[in-house]
Design goal:
By secondary structure, the protein is of the alpha/beta class. 35% of the residues lie in helices and 14% in strands. The strands form three sheets. Strands 4-5-13-10-11-12 form a six-stranded mixed β-sheet, with helices on both faces. The chain has a four-stranded parallel β-sheet with strand order 8-7-6-9, with helices on both faces. Helix 8 crosses helix 9. It is globular, with a radius of gyration of 21 Å. The mean pLDDT is 96. The protein binds pyridoxal-5'-phosphate and zinc ion (ZN). The site of pyridoxal-5'-phosphate has 18 residues, from helix 4 and helix 9.
Length: 423
């Protein structure tokens, strides 16, 4: 038993909704629902398995305008809305006509998850992890993080009245540090990169009792939260799947769960079955999955990250091999872009669609552009990109790239001299 559970806590009936077991992604072995994340047979990662009841579009549409409208498809109890949480999700899906025109695409949408309560998609996964931690009787809500996850854990823990401890690499962007420290007194900056922080968290999870590390020992429950991105995209398109989706990759969890969501929507009859392609986006300064994809190999060789896309800077991604599987199976690809292209991607999305994304979204936008330019993405097919975080958290990335067009005296003549008066 992992340390997430407090001794002798009995798990109440229905604690995990319609989930039936944790199943190994490698060998298929099943274990009971609980604070487990590795297969007892082969050490493969566990994921949540379900026996879904009949779920209708009408039932979902009658639900709240947050991720709990999909609670029948998540490992959460029927009464989940009664427990304090940040109520993330149901973010806008914007048709991006200007960006589409600029890149030569017929139809493009941006799923804008920067408007979640702590301004990234991580609020979704944390809400599911919080439910699991509560049901397991955990006393401490914690995570190793590249930044956004720490923000989400610290805020959700504050709302839930739980002790939180969040661990980050010490070189993280200042706004991401402040966005955690404002919610918790227990922000720990670790001298090392994310992979070092993750290793430390695993060690603490093994030693301390009652700690729920959202992305370590309750990871199977946490990961399910990303499925809601897939559900929302389909619902907001009018209950149908897009042809192509571009998703940023750090650990790779989000990308694989959007695919799982699409599969579940087909299985439950909520959408019609159709082919779709999933594309992954990485930075060249942290490209282990893209490298393996291009080399046509199955093994991921860890890298030491060096990129401005710090939220994506996981050199040894836990779900990397499953990202390869997903992108290859669906006919997608994993592509990478330089830091300069990431900066340009941030500015491009801002100037065409009025959306200020962080470096992860700059990566996704720049990868979209590259996929079109290299013919890997079909410009005629309906495409969705996911903007996973807000640009105000990574201001430094673009603060040299954008500045006032002119600094002038407060006079009309000075204004005319700038040439900005012409329509
Ligand atoms: C803004 C943002 N986008 C994307 C990701 C990638 O998520 P995953 O680890 O599920 O691949 C992260 C992870 O930290 C993130 O912060
Ligand atoms: Zn196994």
């Amino acid at each position: 038993m992992s340390a997430a559970v407090v001794e002798k806590k009995t798990i109440r009936e229905g604690a995990f909704g319609n989930a039936t077991a944790l199943a190994c992604r490698e060998c298929g072995a099943q274990v009971a629902l609980g604070p487990f994340y590795a297969c007892p047979e082969c050490f493969g990662p566990l994921e949540v398995a379900y026996d879904f009841p009949a779920v209708t579009r009408e039932q979902i549409e009658a639900g709240p305008r947050n991720i709990w409208r999909y609670k029948a498809l998540l490992p959460v109890p029927e009464d989940i809305e009664q427990s304090p949480n940040t109520e993330p999700g149901f973010t806008r899906l914007l048709e991006a006509r200007n960006l589409a025109r600029e890149l030569g695409l017929t139809r493009l949408w941006v799923k804008d998850d920067s408007t979640n309560p702590t301004n990234s998609f991580k609020d979704r996964v944390v809400a599911c992890a919080l439910s699991a931690a509560r049901e397991l009787g955990s006393k401490v809500f914690a995570c190793p993080s590249t930044g956004n996850l720490a923000n989400a854990v610290a805020a959700a823990g504050a709302r839930a009245g739980m002790k939180t401890v969040v661990f980050i690499p010490s070189n993280l962007e200042k706004p991401k540090q402040v966005n955690s420290a404002i919610f918790t007194e227990n922000l720990v900056a670790v001298e090392g990169n994310y992979d070092d922080v993750n290793k430390l968290a695993s060690e603490i999870a093994g030693e301390e009792d009652g700690w729920a590390f959202v992305n370590v020992n309750v990871r199977p429950f946490y990961a399910e939260g990303s499925k809601t991105l897939g559900y929302e995209i389909a619902e907001q398109l009018g209950w149908r799947l897009p042809d192509q989706v571009v998703i940023p990759v750090a650990s790779g969890s989000q990308l694989t769960k959007v695919d799982k969501a699409f599969q579940e929507l087909i299985k439950t009859g909520l959408v019609e079955e159709k082919p779709y392609r999933i594309f992954g986006a990485q930075a060249t300064g942290c490209n282990p999955v893209s490298t393996a994809f291009k080399a046509g190999v199955d093994a991921i060789r860890p890298v030491k990250p060096d990129t401005i896309a710090k939220s994506l800077a996981i050199g040894n991604p836990a779900d990397g091999i499953y990202v390869l599987d997903t992108c290859r199976r669906t006919g997608g690809a994993v592509e990478e872009v330089s830091d300069e292209e990431i900066r340009e991607g941030i500015v491009l999305l801002a100037r065409t669609e009025g959306i200020f994304t962080e470096t992860a979204g700059g990566t996704t936008t720049a990868v979209l552009k590259k996929l079109v330019a290299t013919g890997q993405l079909d410009p005629e097919a309906e495409t969705v990109i996911i903007n996973t975080g807000h640009g105000l958290k990574t201001l430094d990335a673009v603060s040299d790239a954008v500045s006032p067009a002119a600094t002038i005296a407060p006079s009309y003549d000075a204004f005319v001299a700038t040439g900005l008066g012409e329509a």
